[in-house]
Amino acid sequence: MLGLAGLAALAALLPAPLPAAPLFESIFMFVPAAPGGGWDGTARSLEKAARDEGLVGSFQFENVGGAAGMVGLPRFVNQRKGAGNALMVGGSVMVGGGITNKSPVTIRDVTPLARLTEEAGVIVVPASSAIRSFKDLESALKANPKAVSVAGGSAGGTDHILLGMMLRAVGRNPREAAYVAFAGGGPANAAILGGQVTAGISGYSEFAEQIKAGRMRPLAVSGSVRIPGVELPTLREQGMDVVAANWRGVFGAPGISTAQRDALIQLVTRIHASASWKDILQQRKWTDVFLAGDAFGKELAADIAATETVLKDLGLA
Fold it and tell me: Which range of residues forms the domain containing residue 164?
């Protein structure tokens, strides 16, 4: 007993164990879109989870929006080549943007690290709109697509493709779409709320606050199933056989070594496994589709090929 008491007293005098060192002292986070959109939200969420877990000492952010990421992407590729502490958030929108804009620099020119989330699109109208249901919108698109302006992300991205698929489903030519592209979620929200467009398409998280506040009326979601916790019917449930979802992921700079790539993959994997990231997924209604390393690289190559085919079929490429 006395011996145990002595050991306890000695242990109390010993210094507390030092916290584990972060995996990275600093991370440069590049977002090829304006602040306020889905990519920016993903990047800020990665920062929060990494800080909560003590995985990164500090973050430096840069946002360069435009043309589905094609304005910012060359900047990241040219300025960060070989940088082992640089991350870029991107996704399916960038795949379509590179094809549509015939960009000389595309998502093929960065290093795939991990796919993070998938988010079904939601179709909304302003709360004051005369369009009360998805059937009302469907009828308007069928009657005169050019009279139904729709706000969304960059031209050729997931939102644009979804509108084209909807037009084809009602028997119209996708090229008739009155699509209004925005570089970020903030400007798109403002256009919808201001009645400058008839409707809007984006990931649910980008419109969630406006929907909850009653300023936007959601009509349908574009996934194969309803978003958990959001009792909003899919397009299929409402008679339109269209399914589309937007994935987001993280990429490294070109020219990094295998060791640098593996270190970044380890960082993102640790973030994904954290309780903080799990909370973010639930709060933002993002679907977890984590896939890292070479497996993600193969999926990305297949997605690029499939998107090229879809864009050609829809007359968008």
Answer: 120-245
What tokens were used for 220? 């349908």
Q: Using an 8 Å Cβ cutoff, are 233 and 226 in contact?
A: yes
Q: What is the pLDDT along the chain (317 residues), one digit of tens a residue?
A: 445 555 555 445 555 554 568 999 999 999 999 998 889 999 999 999 999 999 999 999 999 998 889 999 999 999 999 999 999 999 988 998 899 888 999 999 999 999 999 888 899 999 999 999 999 999 999 999 999 999 998 777 889 889 998 999 999 999 899 999 987 778 899 999 999 999 999 988 889 999 999 999 999 999 888 887 888 999 999 999 998 888 999 999 999 999 999 999 999 999 999 999 999 998 887 889 899 999 999 999 988 988 888 888 777 77
- β-strands 111-126, 56-63 pairing: unpaired
Q: 19 is written with which tokens? A: 């916290």
Three-state secondary structure of 8-19: HHHHHHCCCCCC
Q: Which domain-ending residue is among 214, 245, 276? A: 245
Check whether residue 114 and residue 127 sit in a common domain: no
Residue 20 inside a domain? The answer is no
Task: Provide the whole-model pTM.
Answer: 0.74
Say if residue 203 is in the same domain as residue 273: no
- 87 beta partners: 29, 252
182 and 269 together in one domain: no
Q: How far apart are CA 133 and CA 315, in angstroms?
A: 28
| Domain of residue 159, CATH code | 3.40.190.10
* Whether residues 35 and 103 fall in one domain: yes
